[in-house]
Amino acid sequence: MRKTKEEAEKTRGAILAAAEHLFLENGVAHTSLEQIARAAGVTRGAVYWHFQNKAHLFNDMLSQVRLPQEQMTERLCGCNGQDPIRALRDLCVEAILNLARDEQRKRVFNILLHRCEFTEELREAEERHYAFVDQFIRLCEALFERPACRERLHAGISPLQASRAVHALIVGLFSDWTRDDRLFDPLVDTEPMVDALFRGMVKDWDL
User: Fold this and answer.
1) Per-residue pLDDT for 140 more than 80?
2) DSSP-derived secondary structure letter, 120
3) Could you give the CA distance from residue 43 to residue 75 in angstroms, rounded to a whole number?
4) What does each C-alpha distance from 15 to 38, 126, 202 come to in angstroms?
5) Measured between alpha carbons, how far is 137 from 153 in angstroms, rounded to an integer?
6) Is the Cβ–Cβ distance between 27 and 115 less than 8 Å?
7) How far apart are CA 71 and CA 80, in angstroms?
8) Which of 25-29, 69-73, 120-124 has the lowest mean pLDDT?
9) What is the spatial distance between Cα 17 and Cα 37, in angstroms, rounded to a whole number?
10) DSSP secondary structure string, 60-105?
């Protein structure tokens, strides 16, 4: 039983690795499950055993490198006594640094941002992706909505505007760096760029 489970996990990993390689090389829309099966050295039936369709496979590939919503919620709730806005800032910095330090993460986000055409076949994956994005924005907005956080925002900046600005910065940096990693050095430039945004939103940031 244990060997069978280990073999199944090994097969699943091989399929995900093959999909990642082909998606990056050919684009998601131009990669078939048949091609993925051949590259992984398995039958097409084995692919369908582990994944319902290409959208399911694509979503599981993203899940390998994306922070689960439960962990993200826990990090942003400030339950450990940390300033919630500082916790959000640290999460943003960490996300970009992890992108630079993890080659798989870089490949997967390159696929998502530059090699993925959300066709009808990928409708389910598209819906799941945007649901994740909306969840992140809602979590940020809820954080800025807290009275102790809202009163720290500069006049004229609403919690929704602040949350959208945070999301736009992260997506912009992810997109730029995965497109051309010569544009900035994440290990040097991330903290100053993220802090510049928070300084523009939070009155007491430099304190």
Assistant:
1) yes
2) G
3) 41
4) 9, 20, 45
5) 17
6) yes
7) 13
8) 69-73
9) 11
10) HHHHTTS--HHHHHHHHTTTTS--HHHHHHHHHHHHHHHHHH-HHH
Q: Which long-range contacts (CB under 8 A, 24 or more apart) does 175-181 make?
A: 175/113, 175/114, 177/96, 177/99, 177/100, 178/99, 178/106, 178/109, 178/110, 178/113, 178/114, 179/110, 179/113, 179/114, 181/100, 181/106
Tokens of 7: 């073999």
Contact 141, 158 (CB under 8 A): no
Residues of the chain above pLDDT 90, percent: 78
* Assessment of whether the complete model's pTM goes beyond 0.70: yes
- CA dihedral for 33, 35, 40, 45, sign (positive or negative): positive
Length of the chain: 207
Q: Measured between alpha carbons, how far is 75 from 87 in angstroms, rounded to an integer?
A: 7
Supply the pLDDT for residue 6. Answer: 84
Q: Which of 163, 172, 165 is nearest to 190 (CA)?
A: 172
